[in-house]
Design brief:
Shape: globular
Order of helices and strands: HHHHHHHHHHHHHHH
Radius of gyration: 21 Å
Number of helices: 15
CATH superfamily of the largest domain: MFS general substrate transporter like domains
CATH class of the largest domain: Mainly Alpha
Distance between the termini: 44 Å
Strand content: under 5%
CATH topology of the largest domain: Growth Hormone, Chain: A
Number of strands: 0
């Protein structure tokens, strides 16, 4: 019997083998997301693109990521993690090859959309594997590893992109960043095909809710699109798409509720009856909006405001990567002991560190790099202490049969938050540049103030929950 056909129970004997393979996949997909922040000026020069194309190169990934996450989670529940990971990796390899060989902005946009879809297929499988391979009391460390891999990929992407561009040159360096990921993805696919069990961990019907999937995708797209296109669409009329999108999402819920008895829904709305899951979704959305855009904001500031090279930009942002990994690992190890108060500690660290950055935003030269490096390190640690523990707490009561779609919804709302936060904060940054005679330090202060406000809302939500738990005598980790 080949290893790919071993009984499913064997997967539980050596869970870290399977999780480590999945973490490798997660890492390389998040590199795609992070590296693009330092590659945009090189892409602009090489392809002669306009601002609209660059916006879609940057944001199209996030849009497709958010659209695919939930149905991909349900697909993994039904078809098994091996099948879904291989499907996602095939799309990932094809998309990176297309991006690396692109000779026009349109082709690159299509490649980025496919990259985002591939990441959306792969990401919920990693979280679901933690739920399937580890018992509830053992999930803190594996979720810490998941958080460390995603944080490291997203935050190290700018550094790796800057190094490759510095070595290979601005014309070809950005292409190599994409092309190098393709053989890594292919190698990961071979290992997954070889070692992962070929059958799902449970029996489920193969029926796919195409109508529900379409309603969900259209609703999310209508909600996000005005934010992503705010630089090109002027006036308030495009924002009318948001209430239309909310109406489509309400229709999605009605459809899913009505058809749940006939087949497994794309997302089971009964999960919203779990308080830990609901509050985890809200905090995840807010943290995604306030925390995830920070590497891009600093990259824009350094490259466009201070005229730094991609390599210097990547090195300047590197402490954020180090802090994110440290925070994710520490948070994963301590969440079972400290529970929700750990989130408050991390959020306070993020708010305080960003406030310090605002205070010293006018510095230049080596002093700025040193102060900025320290504050970004602390911001990364704080964010890692929030995102990984919140992921664990949000999913701790989800039934195993629904972990894929539940993790998909969690990541979808985080990604929607990231996309909307990025649009709002970058719009603030560039608008402030124009309104303050090109003073980038002032613009950075305004942008970071918006980020602080969003993170503070997450902190308030967390504190309210902690106080509520204490009044009602709930357990520490709830």
């Amino acid at each position: 019997m080949s290893r790919s056909n071993v009984p499913v129970a064997a997967a539980y004997a050596r869970p870290w083998r399977f999780l480590n393979l999945a973490l490798t996949v997660s890492f390389i997909t998040w590199i795609d997301l992070g590296a693009i922040t330092v590659m945009l000026p090189s892409i602009d020069r090489a392809l002669g693109t306009d601002n609209n194309i660059l916006q879609w190169v940057f944001s199209g990934y996030s849009l497709m990521f958010a659209l695919v996450l939930i149905p991909a989670g349900r697909l993994g529940d039904a078809k098994g993690r091996r099948f879904t990971l291989l499907l996602g990796l095939a799309l990932f390899v094809a998309a990176n090859t297309m991006a690396g060989l692109a000779n026009s902005g349109i082709i690159l946009v299509v490649a980025r959309l496919l990259q985002g879809a591939a990441a959306g297929v792969l990401t919920p499988q990693v979280n679901a594997l933690v739920e399937e391979l580890f018992r509830p009391g053992e999930r803190g460390r594996p979720f810490g590893a998941v958080g460390a891999a995603s944080h490291a990929g997203a935050a190290l992407g700018p550094l790796l992109g800057g190094i490759v561009i510095a070595v290979a040159g601005a014309d070809d360096g950005w292409r190599l960043v994409f092309l190098v990921n393709a053989p890594i993805g292919a190698a990961a696919a071979v290992l997954i095909w070889r070692y992962f069990p070929s059958r799902p961990t449970r029996r489920q019907t193969d029926h796919h809710d195409l109508i529900g999937t379409l309603l969900l995708a259209v609703g999310i797209m209508l909600v996000i699109l005005p934010a992503l296109q705010q630089g090109q669409w002027t006036g308030l009329l495009p924002w009318l798409l948001v209430p239309v999108g909310i109406g489509v999402l309400v229709a999605f819920r009605s459809w899913e509720t009505a058809t749940a008895r006939r087949h497994p829904p794309v997302f089971d709305f009964r999960l919203f009856t779990q308080r830990t899951y609901r509050r985890g979704l809200l905090i995840g959305f807010l943290v995604g909006a306030g925390f995830a855009p920070l590497p891009a904001i600093f990259s824009f500031y350094l490259q466009y405001g201070l005229d730094r090279s991609p390599l210097i930009t990547g090195l300047t942002i590197a402490p954020f990567a180090v802090g994110s990994v440290l925070g994710a690992v520490l948070g994963g190890r301590k969440v079972d002991r400290y529970g929700r108060p750990l989130l408050a500690i991390g959020l306070i660290a993020v708010v305080a560190s960003l406030a310090t950055t605002i205070a010293f935003a006018g510095l230049h030269g080596t002093t700025f790099l040193m102060v900025n490096g320290l504050t970004l390190l602390l911001v990364g640690i704080g964010g890692g202490l929030v995102i990984t523990p919140n992921n664990t707490l949000a999913l701790q009561e989800v039934p195993r049969a629904d972990v894929g779609s539940a993790a998909g919804m969690y990541r979808t709302l985080r990604q929607v938050g990231s996309a909307m936060g990025l649009a709002i904060i970058t719009a603030t940054l560039f608008a402030a540049v124009g309104a303050n005679d090109g003073r980038w330090s002032t613009a950075l202060r305004y942008a970071l103030a918006v980020a602080i406000g969003i993170v503070a809302a997450a902190l308030l939500t967390s504190l309210v929950e902690i106080l509520g738990n204490r009044r009602h005598g709930h357990g520490r980790a709830s």
